[in-house]
Fold each of these.
Amino acid sequence: MSSAEPIKVAIIGGGLAGATLANAILKHDHLDVNIFESASEFSERGAAVSLAANAQAALAEIGGEVADVVERAGGVVMSSSRLCMGSGPDAMSIVFDLGAEMRGKVVHRAALLAELLKPIEDKKKHTNRKVISINDSAKGQVEINFEDGTVFHADAVVGADGVRGYVRCHVLGKDHPAVPAKVAGFWDARSLIPMQKAKALLGEEYFEIDRQYGWIGEGGFIMHDVLDGGDTVQCVVCGIVGEGDEWAEGEWSKPLDRAALEKALEEWTDTPLKKGIVEAMLQNPDLKAFAETHHAIDAPTYANGRTCIIGDAAHSMTPWQGSGAGQAIEDAMILQTLLEKIKSPDQVAMAFQTYSEVRKPRTQRIIHSSCGTGVILCGRGADVGLDAAKIKEVLPGRWAFIHRQNQGEHKEEALEVLAKLLIAHPLP
Ligand SMILES: Cc1cc2nc3c(=O)[nH]c(=O)nc-3n(C[C@H](O)[C@H](O)[C@H](O)COP(=O)(O)OP(=O)(O)OC[C@H]3O[C@@H](n4cnc5c(N)ncnc54)[C@H](O)[C@@H]3O)c2cc1C
């Protein structure tokens, strides 16, 4: 027996994960989707996000409105990327230029979010709705309670509420050690400066073509790339937490001054680039170092009955392998595949159990790989250090399993697991 009424799906959180899923399942008449965002508007902070081959393949598999959403949002193939050494015996040498597969497409975050949300009816998009508790009700539905006192009942709840959201607590139990994200051991800071200023500070030679540069050095990493069609240069400095600076428990950001920057780059080879990047960073009058966090402890599950978690709520990772948004898109692809197959609210828990089983190994592997990649990019890889030849040997393979994912096979794997569950638990 299948349900005559559509299955009511509530998505909590209107970031890239929630918006991708909402858009992906919109085409299924047996699913009725509402999306709830705690902020007063749907918005994305930060400039651009890069989506590698695996993310683009997942968008293509979702199909429909989503297939070319990156292009409609103005996404372009990422400019050339070059990895170099900033200190050690090979200082100022090139390690390698990244292949097209690793570069992917780069798109403005706000434009992508707006495109994803566009086809969803206004009455289904809710802002100022912060979830504060979730209860499984006797009727089988899930009761969602909001801070403003309102309540919504859904057949299926998807927590896409980010790294500091609520739904992870509900799925794992609030005292589970895997609930909080932990400091990953790195900090990063950003400064946006006009192109002319960047040329003067860093050197004209880095801007002859539109190229992203990464610099590996002792205990840190520097990156600079060109944004806004060539008008702006983004400069990033990353360091290791606890070396020359102490972070108090629960401290996520702190001001970064000249002394702290110079301390972070103390062991780097003295070059015009090193001096220039310090000045470039100090152009930001509100310069702050942000502690990078991640879900260091593997969650035992991403699902609990009729509630599941996706995106950063499920598997927050450090940005070293640029994969968080890509994994959120893969989550949406798998959930859409599974929700398409179910016909009754009584099958929601089986779809979510399948999603968890299929997505956990890959996403948790990337959490740990990303952190390990950060160690190498900060010049601290075991048996690698600042040896450019060894770095060239070990780095590319770290992305291969992420980018070369066969998304069609991933969907098939999920469908096989779900089919077994549906046969084992037939509807009355
Ligand atoms: C510096 C940096 C660079 C990155 N670069 C890349 C990259 O190049 N490529 C890539 O693939 N990934 C990248 N990532 C990762 C990527 O940005 C994230 O993984 C992705 O944006 C997560 O999306 P999300 O929707 O899961 O979470 P979020 O974007 O955090 O969205 C969660 C939403 O839920 C809302 N919310 C929170 N709590 C509640 C509640 N209780 N009730 C209702 N709503 C709630 C929030 O307001 C928010 O809108 C980067 C990350 C960082 C930090």
Amino acid sequence: MQFETLVAISAVLLAFLLYSTHHRTGLPRVGKGGPLGFILMALKSITSFTDLIDEGLNKYGGKAFVLPSMTGSFVLVGPENVDIIKSSDDTAINQPISINENLQTMYTMNSRIQGPHFQAGVARTDVTRAGYDFIPEVLDETRLAMSEAFALNADQKSTSVPLFHTMTHLVARITNRPILGTSLCRNKPFLQDVIQFTETLVVYAQLLLWFPKILRRPLYLLASSTFGGHKEPNRVLIPYLKSLIADREGGLESSASESPEEIANLEPLAMRILSISLRSIHTSSMFGSHAIFHLATLSEAERDDIRQEIIEAESECGYNKAPLSKMRKLDSTLRETGRFYSLASVDGTVVPSGYSIAVQLKPIHFDASVYPEPEKFDCFRFSKLRETEESVKHAFTTVENDFLLFGLGRHVCPGRFFASMVLKIMLSHLLLNYDVTLPDGAKEVPKPMLLSLLVMPNLTGRVIIKPRVGQAAQDLEL
Ligand code: HEM
């Protein structure tokens, strides 16, 4: 039997299994009725989740409806429910369960030995508190990483790079610099293993959902030892942590002499570090790629306008101070990217009965009474508003009922300030030092790719990068 046939049969069997475990809610469901309608919709949701949301929106006029997917059923609610979810205290609607379910952390990250919801605490306290202290390291790594990634041969004036792939590697290296230092963030095999861990974990988690709980940990161990997982990065990370701890305590045992028990004890800490990478690498690289594709479609004059503001912000704030909050045009581009794409077509969480409840983002982020001409991507949408309203209301990291990129309520993304800082440094360095355009002078952003609820940047889309030489090139002096 061919592999494709086997996958198709398994998918249909799974969709049937999901139907049989699907609870009745009394709410209308997208698609035809009965088990066949359910199965067809669950299969269709893999590539057309957004279309199915649109279908539900048109059919039920913004009222709640059920959307089957290959990872269970979603109850999709309209904007009027945002306040209820925002004020939820995890008793009726539980966000940590949703994250643990989506990532299957009990089995993939052994979260039982790490305490509940460990990564949120780290991001909310240590990462946020360190804030601007990270800027010099992030900028230093950005300069070096981009000069390597965009290096030209002697006969080249520009280079064409696959944007999402390049961003994933740049973000992995740059975000790990303040966390793990230069030796690990520049260790290419280690970074590759971290990226592989973050990419495969999401896939494993979706597959594990199809199996009984008792089988999930052994299945994860089997899959990760065959296709890669946490063990590969931990092979480097755990001895590194061990040597850091030994240095700090004055005991200088070499990492090679450690007993397996000692190494095993550091696994929870290593998993916490990997879980921060899991949270940050794909969000920031997806997000940064969407933004760069749009920056590449601007006219040279518009890009120069953004560059000018970056230079002015820097010179006003002076050496060693953070000019990032003054880069309103860049900030506006990021917020517009969040409005237009979000990360996914819904913002979801779990109600304990086992249903995922999710807010439909389209009626919120494309509401013409809040965002005029919502179908138009306008890098300057929010900076224009900030010219007349002196307010942080329109800033990238400001969370409002009509801007749900980072979620809302008690579980709103705690890593958003770190993400904003890293993205602004990366984008401003890129703009000041390189000309970025689409191949063949194209002015249309390559079509985003929809994978279940995720809105990915086009995975094969390329940009042309050309160093700006002479007095044109400037850089931040932070
Ligand atoms: C552009 C980049 C990012 C986007 C768009 C993003 C988006 C989100 C969203 C939508 C949520 C769910 C919030 C909710 O359901 O209410 C979330 C949660 C979270 N994010 Fe981010 N994120 C980004 C970057 C980061 C980074 C860089 C870190 C870590 C340094 C991080 C750490 C977390 C953590 C720990 C949570 C769970 C919070 C909790 O459950 O209490 N995120 N993020």
